[in-house]
Amino acid sequence: MRFGVLGPLAVWTSDGEPVRIPETKVRALLADLLAHRGRAVSADRLVEDLWGEDPPGSPSGTLRAKVSQLRRALGDRDLVVHQAPGYVLRDADVDADRFEELTRRARGAGDARVRADLLAEALDLWRGPAFADFADEEFARPEARRLEEARLTALEELAECRLDLGEPADVGALVAEHPLRERLRAAHIRALYRAGRQSEALASYEDIRTLLRDELGLDPGPELTALHQAILRQDPALAPRRPRSNLPAPLTELIGRDDAVRAVRRLLDGGRLVTLTGTGGVGKTRLALEAAARSAEAFPGGAWLVELAPLDGCAETLAEAVAAVLGVRDVPDPGGRPLLDRVVEALRGAPALLVLDNCEHLVEPVAELAAALLRAAPDLRILATSQEPLSVAGELRWPVPPLEPDNAARLFAARAHAAAPHAALDADAVAAICRRLDGIPLALELAATRLRVLNVRDLADRLDDRFRLLTGANRAAPPRQRTLRAMIDWSWEPLTEAERTVLRRLAVHADGCALDTAEQVCSGDGVRPDEVLDLLGRLVERSLVVPGEDGTRYRLLESVAAYGLERLAEAGETDRVRARHLARFVALAERADPLLRGGDQRAWLARLDAESADLRAALDTAVRTGDAESALRLVNALGWYWFLRGRLGEARRSFTRALETAGDAPEAVRATALAWRAAMALLILDGADPDPFEQVDAALARLEAAGDPAALAWARWFLGRGQLGFGDSERGLVLIELALADFEELGDRWGIAAALSVRAELRTYRTDLEAIERDGRRAMELFRELGDRWGELQVTFVLGERAEVAGDYAGAARLRTAGLRIAEELGLWSEMSGLLARLGRIALLTGDLDRSRDLHQRAKQIAAERSHQRGEEFAEVGLALVARRQGRLDDAERHLTAWIDWCRQWEGDGGLAFILAELGFIAELRGDAERALAFHTEGLVHAERTGDRRAYALACEGLAGAHSLAGDHERAARLLAEAHAARAAVGAPLPDAERGDVDRIARRVRAALGPDALTTAEPASTGT
């Protein structure tokens, strides 16, 4: 776990994932412990820091609760430990400590370049003022001030190092903020003088001299005074040391590459040949020049740039180019020595750096030259840039990546400001531009210049026509860098015909592809499948194809893909290759479908996740070309995948598109798609489908007529499962029983397990605990034999519900936690939502209301993000239960009323009965007997329709509360007795954790009728 205080308080896992610390007081507690890290903070001090003059009723108990919340959020109890007289944050990895370690190392470094790099790395850790969100708190103020002073000192030291290295140091803004810091002012004055601004340097000295005299009654110190005198006599010592070099001065700031520069310089320290590779326009040259400039001091023999892009020739021609840069005269040597030998002689005697830029079109002769120079000049280092490596012994390769999104946006904004200073930059549009241009610096710079004539949103919208749009940026740039098309043309021209064929065919893939897919889609017409791998390897070497991290997938940057599609059209191959792509992905989906039910489930879910964009592209092709059979086969094979991933909206849209495709398809295929479409409508229930139940009936009728028993069994099961929780459980149970019989006849063990699992869940509405246990255990055995983790997960839902009903909360929590692990393992977000909400329910019943609220909120967010309204409703009703137990009745009512209309339309009697009961209890707690009676009376009607005795008992208990509040205690007593009898009849008495409402009502009844009132009461008749 890592902690950040150099800016707003932040916590990350060791992998860099942010950790949310809920609630302001818990965050303040963590900030307090971090401000005193390594030392115990007394409980009294923490209470005072957190609550000031308004402490809670039980300060020590409340503090312990906050500590417990903090430990849960951090996921490690050992981080926050009790140590008399209070608490301490132990072994914390804090950015402030890392900052101070780096600055200590910098001060001990003898080399100015190393010192500057360490200081820059340390200062990069700062995200804002120290303890930014607790700046006004007394407990943080001393540590924040100390860290801010350390930061200022580091900034002063970094400015001095850069000036010593002959680099610019812009500290004007800091001087304006801290005008009396003499060391900082000295750096500012030196920087101004070295930039040729002598009068401004002298004015800056006069400014601080006046300020010191007027505000502090002091004169400038001896160092500042000596600097002033040196400027007056124009002391040559003030001039920066300039290494021998022909490196061009940068015209713009290098953005987002600080880590890359450090990495390249480390490679140069350890290797003699470093090659920066990457696609055209990614910034290889700019990075190489920056790294060379920052390393130049280490090369007394000089740092020399040799630009190879204009050249076309052999090793001798390259030697001439190097000789020209080094000043070696290209004239006949009296001794007959070759030019290359004279170049070597010029490079001997002192360490030198040679930057060979743009080697890709001359890779073989450059490799030959580099090898010869390195052998003959032992102190030489070569830094090369190329779209493919030189493949010379000892070569260290460093692929230059595109810019990360934040840095890409920074670069675009900087170039946009230069091109169009008054252009408004919408953050979303900028992010879209950076994403679609793949974070390639040259493409971003070309795009930024268009803001002279377009606003940023129009620019983002026009990127589909990027090659016409991104032109004519910089007349001083080489021709290959003036347009986006020219940039890619430069990479296309050297390719063989076979390489061009594979590259343009790869462009039909929406988001890359696996090797087996590339072999099928890219082969044919002169390219054999067994040749594709070698051709892909050559394209990867040339930085035109990007390999995945695991080496199993290949993709194109978006601009290269757009270029490839144009080349595909020029070759007249578009329709043929897209048809091949469609056939490939239909076959892949149909192969994956059965493998999603068994031991290979996780691997095939991951495979289909990776192929999602191309599966959508394949459907687009089928719809556009009117290939109804391919469209329907594709969506039918993907239905189960979409369901597992909770992508119900995408599934419904896809089935609708496929069913509307003009063209012939077998009736069984079309009927299966109709059943899937009906199931998705049933699961979503958002009002877009006016009568999903009618769709269910129609789809089943079509499937029966089609005569496909396996498809019919599947549809009965899935559609029956989709009707869980609609009040009329008999409708779903009939379909499940039919499906179970079908699966048994077919010998389908997975289907049998799935049907048993759903039947067990349906039986929870009858509270048949023995039958639930029997079906659930048998289903679990079958799913485990088959290796189906999703199936195991479904059974944990059912058995967890059974454990909760029986009051076994520890058992329910174990089952649900195990299920959550499976859901996380498989990436099943809808199931994660349901399990988080159910774990929230257990936290509620065991009294941990803060944890319950957090779990329900997470569940609601996950469900909402995936348009899973049933999951969202379930989670928000849980939030209502938490709010009521915390006494926040208005919040509880708001949560419930948000869903009551939806429940009336879709959820059915079960969900409606529960919400009405909760609203009734809220009214009773407010003392509104009339409103409570109305809610509970309506709730009873819906509870009786469910056939669920527990729902009926809850309605009776609610009515008892309403009548007792109205003064009819005898009826209340009879209703409580009726509820008790209903629960006893199904062997599910009310657990202690759920007795709060009943106990409150019972106390009211006993207070009115005497202590024995409930023991003698007869069950009520609720018919009136």
UniProtKB/TrEMBL annotation:
Protein name (database record): Putative ATPase/tetratricopeptide (TPR) repeat protein
One MF term in the entry's GO annotations: ATP hydrolysis activity
SUPFAM superfamilies, per the entry: C-terminal effector domain of the bipartite response regulators (SSF46894), P-loop containing nucleoside triphosphate hydrolases (SSF52540), TPR-like (SSF48452)
UniProtKB keywords: DNA-binding
SMART domains: BTAD, Trans_reg_C
One GO BP annotation of this record: regulation of DNA-templated transcription
DNA-binding region listed in the record: 1-91
Segments forming domain OmpR/PhoB-type: 1-91
Family: Belongs to the AfsR/DnrI/RedD regulatory family.
InterPro entries: AAA_22, BTAD, HTH_77, OmpR/PhoB-type_DNA-bd, P-loop_NTPase, Sig_transdc_resp-reg_C-effctor, TPR-like_helical_dom_sf, WH-like_DNA-bd_sf
